[in-house]
Amino acid sequence: MKGKEGEDMLANRIKSLFLSSALLVGISGVTGVATAVEIGEKAPDFTLASTTGKDISLSEFLGKKYVLIEFYGADFAPV
Known about the structure:
Layout lengths: L3 H27 L16 E3 L5 E3 L22
């Protein structure tokens, strides 16, 4: 491929590479680094919707009782 068609393909590849790089940099700047909580460390506070629909945070249970936190990796509903 020579001439105008080759230049257009090269320009499109450069644009794609630039946009992909910009997206990658944007995503990495927004997301924090997730670290595991070790045994004995205090769990970070978070807030989620409860089964009743109201928001509930982990800190609401501080000093009250034991708390079991279980996260499901998949939905068990039929597809």
